[in-house]
Amino acid sequence: MGFLVIVNNYRLVKSMNEKEIKNIVKESLALTLKTEGLVKESTVKPAKAVIKEAVILSSKPFVLKTESQSNTTKENHFQLYKSYVESFNKISSKLDTVDKISDPTNTNDSEFRRLKQDEQHNLNGAKLHELYFDNISDLASNIGMDSVPFMRLSRDWGSFENWQFDFRACGLAAREGWAILYWEPFKQRYLNCFVEKHSEGVPVGGIPVLVVDTWHHAWFRDYPSTEGKINFLHACMREINWNVVEARMQIAEQSNVHQIFLVKPVANPNTETQRGDIRISNVAPIDKSQVTDRIQVGK
Prior knowledge:
Elements lengths: L17 H18 L35 H25 L15 H25 L12 H10 L2 H14 L3 E8 L4 E8 L10 E7 L2 H4 L8 H10 L4 H13 L8 E3 L12 E3 L19
Helix pairs in contact: 2-3, 4-5
């Protein structure tokens, strides 16, 4: 007989050492065995500590050397980033106690639904800001024609200039959001997209390698004219830290995320349903007999 020991508030406090965690797990296991009647009560010792809700995210310090953004804009950006981190941690705690049985059934008034939406909004807000802060503000920005970013973007877009125009267009098209260059594991190439707010239009499985903030608060104060947004995008793109982008590209391409799409169920001949082993298959789902060499005019 096997047992699954579930410890409430499972996120571990960072201050706990490995020995303390092992003791708590050991005592929880002993309590489970006692409940199942497999050990005597005298052999169970009471737990001496409780695993409490942990701070999931911690804000990080960033230094932006760029002069294309005012100190006020930079400081407001840092404060906004910290607010996402703090809000996510509060929401994470609330989600541990919210009713997950009856509350979600009423989607017109669901605390669980609101918390889950806000969870993603704040988590993505923190992650996107960290990526953004790290890949901008390089005052000595340059990109070599033999560098990974230049070669990859030239390959996937026909030319490096074509990629630039498409990326800038994504930044201009976003009302309040982000322009993102990402590794598309399904197509095995780099694509651009824009994400509205923090969670609308996020590409499934996409790995971001370059992020530029296009919310109004990122540019309107320093570029208030009718051409302000495009001038801001030009300033940001001229200060891209290509070393950071290249490192992200190497990590993204080595991630093998594309193999997720190759996992197929293997039919077990001993059962009516498809169960058993899972393997990676490169077999196309459409049989060759279904493919014709003639174009049929619509009837």
